[in-house]
């Protein structure tokens, strides 16, 4: 049922928990996972200024993906990595809708209702706008 899973990660503990759930589902369904990391333009300016070069910047991004990749390798689940660019919510939605995934799995930052109303949340945007089912992991 869920053969093609998009796992959105940002390097947080929430995204690692999402990776654990994605691994369990992929293993049970004999599926594959695409890990998506979004290089957020609003935050990447600071990263670019502090990076020693392009390779250093890529290394910093890959470090955030490493725990999820190690988990999938350990579980022997086929995966690929895709680094997207832009605002995280719309970038994930656009990618998910353009590539016909069966399921999107994303971690929740755990905002309270007021914070979510004022700030918005990436997981909420993805849930509302994706064409496929979305699993939000608390």
TrEMBL record:
UspA domain mapped to chain residues: 1-138
The protein's matches in InterPro entries, at most eight in alphabetical order, are given as: Rossmann-like_a/b/a_fold, Universal_stress_UspA, UspA
What is a single Pfam family found in this protein's UniProt entry? Usp
Can you tell me which family this protein belongs to?
A: Belongs to the universal stress protein A family.
Q: What is this protein called?
A: Universal stress protein
The organism encoding this protein is Bhargavaea cecembensis
């Amino acid at each position: 049922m869920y053969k093609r899973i998009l796992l959105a990660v940002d390097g947080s503990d929430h995204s690692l928990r999402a990776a654990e759930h994605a691994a369990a589902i992929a293993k049970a369904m004999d599926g594959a996972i695409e890990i998506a990391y979004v290089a957020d333009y609003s935050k990447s300016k600071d990263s670019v200024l502090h990076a020693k070069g392009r390779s250093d910047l890529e290394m910093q991004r890959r470090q955030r993906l490493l725990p999820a990749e190690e988990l999938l390798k350990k579980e022997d689940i086929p995966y690929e990595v895709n680094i997207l660019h832009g605002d995280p919510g719309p970038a994930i939605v656009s990618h998910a809708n353009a590539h016909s995934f069966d399921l999107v799995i994303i971690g929740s930052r755990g905002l309270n209702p007021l914070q979510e109303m004022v700030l918005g949340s990436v997981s909420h945007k993805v849930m509302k706008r994706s064409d496929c089912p979305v699993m939000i992991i608390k």
